Amino acid sequence: MIGTSSPSSAPLGATPANRTTDPGRAIDLDAFRAKPVDHNPFAHVIIPGFVRAEVREAIHRDFPEIAQPGSFPARELSFGPAFAALLEEIQGPAMTAAFEEKFGIDLTGHPTMVTVRGRAKAQDGQIHVDSKSKIITVLIYMNPAWETADGRLRLLRGPESLDNAVAEIPPAEGTLLAFVNGPTAWHGHTSFVGPRRVIQLNWVQDDGVVKREQFRHALSAKMKRLNPFR
């Protein structure tokens, strides 16, 4: 199934060599491995060009058509083979091993969940932390160009203001942001309305989380289709 993956089976520190040296096909795992973790204001990495330039055109072509704002479970969407290959790779063993090593977190027994956004509405981007069920959040942006100052995710020192930011990430094509979820992992962006393509990958606590979240997202998506102005 494209929208989820099986939990990692190898314990941290005992991953096969090919999982720790695979450079990636559509993604640049070597660039990810080489980037130090920034702990200000919480553990994160930002990798421009994580999705390789030579595959972006095909991924854009095969990106699911999403007319409404909101997050949609990948398994509920229709998309082409290049996009499917990207989802398979980011949920694969080499990616998991790289994230275990980078953040020092054993992801054994923790499945992945993928949701996709195609458009933003004015209310999106309010300051928040992710739910406790999410261990690591990965955002992969796929917007061909981003010239506006709005809609750029900010990593924040606290929940008070978007102006209290340590980093700002333009959602330009191929850029990856990954962070360890926690009570201080505040983030948000200024209001933006329009196309804003992003793939969100999470390692979560267990399969129950995947089922609950996918049901919630699917129900929300159904309501949006019935009432697109919601």
- The CATH class name reads Mainly Beta
% residues in beta strands = 15-25%
Query: What's the CATH superfamily, by name?
Result: q2cbj1_9rhob like domain
Order of H and E elements: EHHEHEHHEEEEEEEH
**Cα gyration radius (Å):** 17 Å
Number of domains: 1
DSSP summary, beta strand count? 10
Report the span from N to C terminus. Answer: 30 Å
The fold-level CATH name is: Jelly Rolls
Helix residue percentage: 25-40%
- In this structure, how is the largest beta sheet organized? 7 strands, antiparallel
The average pLDDT is 89
Task: Give the helix/strand class.
Answer: alpha+beta
| Poorly predicted sequence stretches spanning 5 or more consecutive residues | 1-15
Tell me the overall shape: globular
CATH architecture: Sandwich
How many helices? 6
InterPro entries: Pro_4_hyd_alph_FE2OG_OXY (IPR044862)
Protein name: 2-oxoglutarate-Fe(II)-dependent oxygenase superfamily protein
Region (Disordered): 1-24
Domain Prolyl 4-hydroxylase alpha subunit Fe(2+) 2OG dioxygenase: 126-204
